[in-house]
Amino acid sequence: MNLLAKIRDKQALVGIIGLGYVGLPLVLRFAQVGFKVLGFDTDAKKIDFLNRGESYIKHIPASRLAELVQPQGDGQRFEATQDMSRLGEPDVLIICVPTPLTAKREPDLRFVEHTARLIAASLRPGQLISLESTTYPGTTEELLLPILSGNLKVGDDFYLVFSPEREDPGNPRYQVSTIPKVVGGVTPICQEHGVALYTQVVGRVIPVSSTQAAEMSKLLENIYRAVNIALVNELKMLCLRMGLDVFEVIEASQTKPFGFQAFYPGPGLGGHCIPIDPFYLTWKAREFDFSTRFIELAGEINTYMPYFVVQRVAEALNQFAKPLKGAAVLVLGVAYKKDVDDFRESPALKVINLLEREGAIVSYNDPHIPRLTGMRSYPGFDMTSTPLNEAVLQQADCVLLVTDHSAYDYGLIAAQARLIVDTRNAFKDYHQAHIFKA
């Protein structure tokens, strides 16, 4: 049976490399529609969790995983492994590894390249490789293809596509099955295989002319958001100076039934996409003697926002004759967005870092993140979420709301805190003098 027939009959073994916020939902969806899935990850703790049917991601229930790891009528649906020598077993390999930035804001593709070399070591005829990690246009054909080719010919012996992930962690409205999938192939036959694969798990597949077009489409999606967030962040700073409420202005503007989409300001960008992806394109554009000035300006504004928040904290404390140095600041919410347990690239990390550099005594509470440990940008972080109660609120010189989780009792916080700095308009219904916007 050829690969297309295996995919259409759901007889293909699907391998997913990287079992995080992108890879794990794919595991669930492919298994749900009838495929057997072999998951790969380098984190031994993740592997142990998953093979016990336990979830380490808040919005993915363990019950769904437990069903997959238990042998059923035709055997176990999902297995996780660290053994990369097994990459030759799946008929389909989907790459969902991180694509961060270096300290100089240049693309860091070491995880993609390393994964490609591992695949190449056991690549066999009849396999389909799909890269989902966000990257600059040209990565699939300029980086992956030369590594994978070897003695095998793309389009004849194996198939290579790029299909960007569109996962939105914690969003109950949009899941893998309901988010349209863009697919670009290295060759027309590669494209055919990629479309056949994703048609099995999503409601709509959008073929594009090349892997480069698919790569660029993902960047455009996130650059669009980054630029518009930068715009409202800049307007927020202006409105505060002018004595206006930018959130009131946005709400009024979005009553126009055409030509306007609401974006909201905040303490800075967070997550694994929007703070990073635009810089993949600005880097690649330099190869073509092109300066992406609009994107870079938006990046400057968004990068500045944590500094602006700390400045507002200092100004607010000053109103109470309290210097920032030595002030007890309680940060509420360190996740990069509300109601998730993900703090990758969260602006809260930069805010905490800046506050501590200014001499503030910082603690945090986040109902979804009990412990805040070091990441690439802040390797020294090791903090534990403090309980949120009346005594803790009363003891803080300033309560800084960074992430507006639904679990917070905003009435209690407004009543008990001496000073509040709100970066999310979470206290819009409370009009007390001790609440400042940032």
Q: In what range is the share of β-strand residues?
A: 5-15%
Strand order of the largest sheet: 3-2-1-4-5-6-7-8
Into which percent range does the helicity of residues fall? 25-40%
Q: How would a crystallographer describe the biggest sheet?
A: 8 strands, mixed
Shape, per Cα inertia axes: globular
Which structural category fits the helices and strands? alpha/beta
What's the CATH class of the largest domain, please? Answer: Alpha Beta
Task: Give the H and E element order.
Answer: HEHEHHEEHEHEEHEHHHHEHEEEHEHEE
CATH-assigned homologous superfamily of the largest domain = NAD(P)-binding Rossmann-like Domain
Give the tally of β-strands.
15
Mean pLDDT: 93
Note the gap between the termini: 61 Å
What is the CATH architecture descriptor of the largest domain? 3-Layer(aba) Sandwich
Sequence stretches where pLDDT stays below 50 over 5 or more residues: none
